[in-house]
Amino acid sequence: MKRFFASILIAFPLVSCVQEALDAPEMQGAQTEHLVSDGAFDAGKCIVLFDEEIVAEIEAYAGDGVPQTKSAGLDLMFQQLGVTSVERLFPHAGEFEPRTRKEGLHRWYVLSYSDEVPYTKADVGLGALPGVELIQPVRKIKINDFNDLSSDLWGLRNRTNPGFDINVTPVWQNYTTGNPDVIVAVVDNGVDISHPDLAANCLPEGSHYNAVDGTSTIYPGDHGTHVAGTIAAVGNNGQGVVGVAGGDSAAGKAGVKILSCQIFKDSAEGSVSGNSPAAIKWGADHGAVISQNSWGYVYDDNGDGKITGEELDRALEATVTPADKAAIDYFIKYAGCDNAGNQLPDSPMKGGVVIFAAGNDNIANGAPAEYDKVIAVGSIASNGKKSSFSNYGKWVDIAAPGTDILSTVVGGGYASMDGTSMACPHVSGVAALVVSYHGGPGFTNDMLMGRLLNGANPDLVPSSYEVGRLVDAMGAMTHGSSATPAKVEDLEASARANTMDLSWTAVADDEGVPAYGYMALYGKDKAAVAAATPSDYKFIGVSCAVCTPDVEVGEKVNFAVKGLDFNAAYHVKVLAYSYGLNYSEPSAVAIFETSSNNAPVIDVYNEGSYSIKASQTLEVAVNVADPDDHDFEVDFDCEVSHTFIPGVDAGSYIFTVVGKEVPAGAYDAVLTVTDEYGMIGTKTISFEVLDNAAPVVIKEIEDILLSAKGKEMSIDMTEYVTDPDGEQLKYEVTVSNNKVVHVTPRADRLYVTALAYGLVEVEIAACDVRGEKAVFKFKVLVKDPSDPVSVYPNPVTDYVNIGTLDMAETLITITSSTGKVMHEETSQVSGVEPARIDMTGFAPGSYSVKVSFGGNEYKRTVVKL
Amino acid sequence: MKKLLYIAGALMLLVPALAQAQSLPFVAAETDAASLGTAGANLVQTGSVANASFSNAAAIPFSEQTMDVAAGYTMWQPVSSNILNVGAAFNLKQKFGVAVGFQYGMNPAYDVTNSSGAVTGQFSPSDMHVNVGLAWRFLPFLSLGANVGYATSSLAEGQSYGALAADVFAMAKFGGLKVTAGVANVGTTVKDAAGNEFCIPGSIAVGAGYSKVFGEKNGIDVLVDADYYFSGWMAVAAGAAYTYNDFVSVRVGYRYGGESPVPSYASVGAGVKLLGIKLDAAYLISSSPIGNTLALSLGYTF
Description:
The structure holds two protein chains of two kinds.
Chain A lengths: L3 E7 L30 E10 L1 H9 L11 H10 L3 E4 L8 H6 L5 E5 L6 H9 L4 E8 L1 E6 L22 H6 L8 E7 L19 E2 L11 H11 L14 E2 L4 E2 L2 E11 L2 E4 L2 H10 L4 E4 L1 E2 L12 H9 L4 H13 L18 E5 L17 E6 L17 E4 L3 E5 L3 E5 L2 H19 L6 H10 L14 E2 L2 H6 L13 E5 L2 E7 L11 E7 L2 H6 L11 E5 L8 E6 L7 E9 L12 E4 L7 E4 L5 E3 L4 E9 L6 E7 L4 E4 L5 E7 L6 E11 L4 E10 L6 E2 L6 E3 L5 E5 L4 E2 L7 E6 L5 E6 L2 E6 L3 E10 L5 E10 L7 E3 L6 E5 L4 E8 L5 E9 L5 E4 L6 E9 L2 E9 L1
Parallel strand pairs in A: 1-14, 7-11, 7-13, 8-11, 13-15, 15-16, 16-17, 17-20, 29-35, 37-44
Antiparallel strand pairs in A: 1-6, 2-4, 2-5, 3-4, 9-10, 11-12, 18-19, 21-22, 22-25, 23-24, 23-26, 26-27, 28-30, 30-33, 31-34, 32-33, 34-35, 36-39, 38-42, 40-43, 41-42, 43-44, 45-46, 46-49, 47-48, 47-50, 50-51
Helix pairs in contact in A: 6-10, 7-9, 10-11
Chain B lengths: L1 H13 L18 H5 L29 E10 L4 E12 L3 E11 L3 E4 L5 E5 L2 E14 L2 E15 L2 E16 L2 E11 L2 E2 L5 E2 L4 E12 L3 E12 L4 E11 L3 E9 L8 E10 L2 E9 L8 E8 L1
Antiparallel strand pairs in B: 1-2, 1-18, 2-3, 3-6, 4-5, 6-7, 7-8, 8-9, 9-12, 10-11, 12-13, 13-14, 14-15, 15-16, 16-17, 17-18
């Protein structure tokens, strides 16, 4: 179940507002944005940037409640607006207060006043006062969820569409799985720091920041926990998911640390937004060097779930708000630094990197991600296509997996989500890995940015998507590296027909990082091969083949190259190369000779002449292989119905003939296998389907009398019929009235059950596989012994049957209702051989039937219709 | 009369080809006790005309009574059908006659079985016959009479078969001698389930009788009826009745049925009459299936 949102959106759209250049000199340069739409903003609040003079007066005020200043106008406006509190947007930063003040962040205040006061009144009233440099409203924040079902960490390693992932596996194998000295600030809703798959990589309780309440108490939410899990879920711990930089639990290696900076909090009224600028700044002031932000601004002012009309216009024009911009700039400048901007001795990086989700509106803009100092992250799906929701544009810096991402959620659970919110932490995780490995004194945020953006894969995601290049952990880790793998020393070369078989021992660079791949340069001209380099081989008649084997250093690499000329001498050498395409020295040149082409080989299991009965099925296992490992095509020709289907193993086939579907006779099936060079191998499979013999009647089945309803009996058909071919016969049953008798065949036995009184005719066809049959007909009489005479059907329209129990000479007299004798005859009558009297010439009416046998008379009435 | 015989002769030629079997045969059977006592010979019977609508309405104007009503019960063999009949005749100044009759027969229930012999239910068939008759004595010695009726049999659930039937007779009386001739049970046909048509048992009928009273208290009636059925069969019934002092009667008769719907039988009967109230009984003697048929009737006449 994917029950989460693509991004958390902090609403601050710049709507149909007026940018006013005020005349007051203290307002020069200030931009005031007026809000006219409603519903998307917090009532009774605004953010104000005061000048130093007003700030000094506010800070000097020692009383309780709203501060008093020397500005009579400001104090009056506070009264008119009903201001109830004046608080710093960026709280006091402790040891980092000096740089906070240096950057002017101490001058940002949040004013709270009556909900009844419209923002425009505060805007106009405060904006006209000296000492007020900027006013902005506080947008509401909402969470948009996408829900789906998925359960694969394809973003880390895409097994369905190889390559469309962040290529982190070789980084884990060769570089790092994370470093606890690297702190990533997750600006989001709260992270579940007690999640069993995440807790080990979270900073201790009390270290985090709740920017909604201004406390250190975190209220976890699914979105923030999901994001954090993608970055730092504990790796290799045998449970749940794996974060990009979550460490290696089994190896005792911790991952990077998560600092939760909560800006959303669920309440009875819904999600409450917090102080996002303060949350961003908090990270810089508390050790984080990477700020992860999967949120953006709300453009859907009317809350209808769509961005249309003026909303779309505003969305496309939106930019980062001043307060957020100030916080982002601060993070980039001061993360990992002291008040003077120098790298702290225990910090892995000088300066910070702020990473933002591009947004999920599928439009050509997204704020704050469009701010050029942040890394904007677009999203792709597992097939490499742009995620349908991802915002796009030249401003998007890098792409990452964002559709169907599985990660941690609150309560120890896991879930899949879609969104650039999910793509963003993949980039943050890769950034954290790079800092983990390369970080330290002298490592700067610009270096990190360069590795992330320049190391991204330029080939996989088309530029037309405008979601940036696909983030590449290995590329970022190795970007700019000069490390070169060692020379291959033990190259061996041989040939099978025109296939070259090479083998050598895998090598690594000086740091023990295995060669990323190997390039084989080969040709018939030894001198040309010896002189060839990766850059010029194609110009001197030398061929090239490349492999990227998944082997450990020191293990043998086996590499086959097809398509060489037959019967020729070749020379070959191998170069190892790093992920950054630094090539080793070439190996020594080896020589080998190709040979003639060999025909494909066809093996028939238990080869011989096959003979089957019509009831049997012939299955012949056939194995086809090319001794030269060439591709081949298989053609099978057989004149009768058959199947020739691939078996479980490559090259294996099963030839099947079902005897009953093929006329009797002898046949040849010809298998022809042609390799890619036209060499042919053939095999003929001869088989015979024997003539069929129809089932033979041994004796007829006698009529059956069942003396009560529910009575059962069985008939062993092997006493009545046999099949000369020894087949198991099938029995087709036809009963003239299924309500009287039920006949069920099971194997060679018929089970007869009396259901009601009456006489039925039963036909049994004993069929062999070719449908030839022996037919039996008999009658089954179910008779109540207390009623010796049966007259049926009654009423009658043509012939009436009059039966008795046992065979006896019987006089039957039928008279009209007035006593005229209409029919009289004496005959042998029984239950299964009743008298059959033609009444078609009888007029409709009621007739008396007198049945006399064995010295007794029985009277019945029969009605002719 | 010649014209009547001519029509009857034409019918004789046409009808036998229609069918051998006869539908609704009970319309040809007499069921009231007075008639059965003389083996059904009653076409010129003028002493008891309550059931004239089932025999010969032309006899009514020659009756000496103004009104004659009767109700009877007959247990008709061979399957012991229970038949109830009611009849009434009104003689207007020995010039005109009107008669009505109703007969309902209840036959024993039978088991409904399907083509395999399985019993699926039961049904009780029944017969009904209702008639009206008119007569006109247009000369002192000659009258004409006609009956029209409807007969039906209910044979199975939702399966009933019916037909219209009519009788036309002329009757003459010369002293104690009475003769009559006409056609009986001429009517519509019945179709069976297969669409085959069957006629009701129509016939050309003639009858004669002689009545004589000796010594004022001893009355004798001799009656003869003959039917020639359109199917080609012939039947004759003859009977005699002795009546003492118009109080007690005894009757005997014999019917030769041949191939007709009602087989041969002999009959005996008796009756008493007091203050206009009549009680009659009859019993059939026969080796055929209708032997042991018994009829009783109660009437009133004035």
